[in-house]
C-alpha cells in the first residue's frame, strides 16, 4: 500500500519541486516530466521550457482543469514513506538512550539511592541514640540512687555519732550531777552529825539545867 | 465545465488557505538513500533539549535538591515507578530504555504542540513533531520489539519460545501474530494520534483563527502526554510479560 501511495505521489512532488527549487539532485534522475492525465503539456520537453514562470502557470492551469482526483493527489502524499530515516532514528534513539543513561539516569539514580540509604542509616542511628539516651538515663538514675544511699548513710552515721556524743555528754552530766549530789549529801550528813554532836553537848547542858531547875536541891 | 472549474478553483483556494501539508517531506540524499530531513532536524532539537536540560540540572546533584534537580528526580521516580509496576523487581536495567522512550516521545509530541516550528520555512514540507512521521514511530516500536525479545531470551534462554505454545499449542498462530501486532499497534497508535492532533489544530486554525482552536490545542497537549505514557507503559509491559515466568 505504501509503495502505491508513493508511486502515485512521486510525479506530483517532482512538479512542485521543479517550480520551487530546480537544483535538487533528485531532478536529474527523472528528466522526463510526466503528466499522466492531461493532453495539453505533452509536447513540452524540459529543454523547451522557456521560463519557470510559464511552467508554474501551466501547472496551475493544468490543476485547475484537472478532475478533482488529481487535486486530491496533492494531499495524498507520502504518508507511509519508509526510507533511511527509520534506521537513523533507531540509531539516534539508542545513542540518546546511552547518553541519557550516562548523564541522567545512572548518576541521579545512584545519587538518590545513596541519599535514601544515608537517610535510612541516619534514622536507624537516631533510634540507637534513643537507646543511648535510655542508658544514660539509667546511669543517671543509678548515680542518683547511689548518691541518695550515700547521703542517707552519712546521715544515719552522723545521727548515731551525735546520739552517742549526746548520750556521753548526758552520762557525764549525770555523773557530775550525781557526784555533786553525793558531795552535797555527804556535806549534809557531816553537818547533821556536827549539829547532832553540838546538839548532844547542848542536850547534856540543857538536861543538867533542867535537872537543876526541876530538882531543887 | 465552467462550474466544475470554478468549484475546483475554490477547492485549490481552500488548499492554499489551509496550508495543510500532509506527507510532504524535505528530502536529503545520503549515500543513495533518501531521508526525511525535517524529521531529523526536529529530532536533533528534541535530543538537544533533553540532553542539555539533563546535563544542566543533574551536573552537580545536591543532597537538598534545587528546583531543576527536584524536577528531574520527580521524572526519574515516575519512570522508575512505571517500570517497576510493569516489569517487577528486576526493572533496574530497563529504566534507561523506558525512560528514554517516554522522554523522547513526550518532548517530541510537546515540541510539535508548543514550539513554533512553522516559523522556519523549509523549501518543501514543514517542521513538525518527529513522532509525526511513520519512520520515527516504527523505529521506536521495532526497538521495543527487539527489547522484549532480548529481555525474554536473556532471562530464559531458548525456553522463552515455549511461551508460544502456552497455555495450549492451538494458540501458536495467535501468539506468533502478537509479535507482529504489538509493534504495529504501538507505531500506528502514536503516529495516528499525533498526526491527527496536528491536523485538527491546523484545520481549525485555518477555519477560525482565534480562540476556538485553543481548547483543541490543550486537548492536543493532553493527548501527547497520554500517548507518550501509553507507549512507555506498553513497552515496559511487553518487556515484563516476556520476562515473567509462567507457572
UniProtKB/TrEMBL annotation, chain B:
Keywords: ATP synthesis, CF(0), Chloroplast, Hydrogen ion transport, Ion transport, Membrane, Plastid, Thylakoid, Transmembrane, Transmembrane helix, Transport
Transmembrane segments: 35-58, 94-114, 134-153, 190-212, 218-239
Primary residence: membrane
Membrane topology: Multi-pass membrane protein
CC per GO annotation: chloroplast thylakoid membrane; plasma membrane; proton-transporting ATP synthase complex
Classification via InterPro entries: ATP_syn_F0_a_bact/chloroplast, ATP_synth_F0_asu, ATP_synth_F0_asu_AS, F0_ATP_A_sf
GO molecular function, one term: proton-transporting ATP synthase activity, rotational mechanism
Annotated compartments: Membrane; Plastid, Chloroplast thylakoid membrane
Pfam assignment, any one: ATP-synt_A
Family assignment from sequence similarity: Belongs to the ATPase A chain family.
Job description of the protein: Key component of the proton channel; it plays a direct role in the translocation of protons across the membrane.
Description of how the protein assembles with itself and partners: F-type ATPases have 2 components, CF(1) - the catalytic core - and CF(0) - the membrane proton channel. CF(1) has five subunits: alpha(3), beta(3), gamma(1), delta(1), epsilon(1). CF(0) has four main subunits: a, b, b' and c.
Protein name: ATP synthase subunit a, chloroplastic
Organism, scientific name: Hibiscus cannabinus
Amino acid at each position: 500500500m505504501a509503495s502505491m501511495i508513493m508511486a502515485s505521489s512521486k510525479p506530483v512532488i517532482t512538479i512542485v519541486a521543479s517550480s520551487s527549487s530546480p537544483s535538487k539532485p533528485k531532478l536529474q534522475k527523472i528528466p522526463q516530466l510526466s503528466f499522466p492525465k492531461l493532453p495539453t503539456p505533452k509536447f513540452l520537453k524540459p529543454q523547451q521550457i522557456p521560463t519557470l514562470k510559464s511552467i508554474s502557470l501551466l501547472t496551475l492551469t493544468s490543476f485547475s482543469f484537472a478532475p478533482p482526483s488529481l487535486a486530491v493527489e496533492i494531499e495524498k502524499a507520502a504518508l507511509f514513506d519508509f526510507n533511511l530515516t527509520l534506521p537513523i532514528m533507531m540509531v539516534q534513539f539508542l545513542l540518546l538512550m546511552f547518553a541519557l543513561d550516562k548523564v541522567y539516569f545512572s548518576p541521579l539514580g545512584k545519587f538518590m539511592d545513596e541519599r535514601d540509604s544515608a537517610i535510612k542509616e541516619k534514622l536507624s542511628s537516631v533510634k540507637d541514640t534513643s537507646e543511648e539516651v535510655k542508658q544514660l538515663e539509667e546511669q543517671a538514675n543509678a548515680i542518683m540512687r547511689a548518691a541518695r544511699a550515700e547521703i542517707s548513710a552519712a546521715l544515719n552515721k552522723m545521727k548515731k555519732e551525735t546520739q552517742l556524743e549526746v548520750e556521753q555528754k548526758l552520762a557525764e552530766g549525770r555523773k557530775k550531777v550525781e557526784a555533786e549530789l553525793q558531795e552535797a549529801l555527804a556535806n549534809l550528813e557531816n553537818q547533821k552529825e556536827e549539829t547532832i554532836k553540838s546538839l548532844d553537848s547542848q542536850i547534856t547542858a540543857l538536861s543538867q539545867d533542867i535537872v537543876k531547875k526541876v530538882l531543887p536541891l | 465545465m465552467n462550474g466544475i472549474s470554478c468549484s475546483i478553483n475554490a477547492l485549490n483556494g481552500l488548499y492554499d488557505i489551509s496550508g495543510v501539508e500532509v506527507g510532504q517531506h524535505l528530502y536529503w540524499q545520503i549515500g543513495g538513500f533518501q531521508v526525511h530531513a525535517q524529521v531529523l532536524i526536529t529530532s536533533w532539537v528534541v535530543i538537544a533539549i533533553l540532553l542539555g536540560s539533563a546535563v544542566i540540572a543533574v551536573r552537580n546533584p545536591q543532597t537538598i535538591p534545587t528546583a531543576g534537580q527536584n524536577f528531574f528526580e520527580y521524572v526519574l521516580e515516575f519512570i522508575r515507578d512505571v517500570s517497576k509496576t510493569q516489569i517487577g523487581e528486576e526493572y533496574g536495567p530497563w529504566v534507561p530504555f523506558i525512560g528514554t522512550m517516554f522522554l523522547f516521545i513526550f518532548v517530541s509530541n510537546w515540541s510539535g504542540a508548543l514550539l513554533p516550528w512553522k516559523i522556519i520555512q523549509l523549501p518543501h514540507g514543514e517542521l513538525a513533531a518527529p513522532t509525526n512521521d511513520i519512520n520515527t514511530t516504527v523505529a521506536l516500536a521495532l526497538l521495543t520489539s527487539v527489547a522484549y525479545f532480548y529481555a525474554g531470551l536473556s532471562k530464559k534462554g531458548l525456553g522463552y519460545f515455549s511461551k508460544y505454545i502456552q497455555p495450549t499449542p492451538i494458540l501458536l498462530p495467535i501468539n506468533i501474530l502478537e509479535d507482529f501486532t504489538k509493534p504495529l499497534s504501538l507505531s500506528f497508535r502514536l503516529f495516528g494520534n499525533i498526526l491527527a492532533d496536528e491536523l485538527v489544530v491546523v484545520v481549525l486554525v485555518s477555519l477560525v483563527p482565534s480562540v476556538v482552536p485553543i481548547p483543541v490545542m490543550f486537548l492536543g497537549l493532553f493527548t501527547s502526554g497520554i500517548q507518550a505514557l501509553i507507549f512507555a507503559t506498553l513497552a515496559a509491559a511487553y518487556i515484563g510479560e516476556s520476562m515473567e515466568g509462567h507457572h
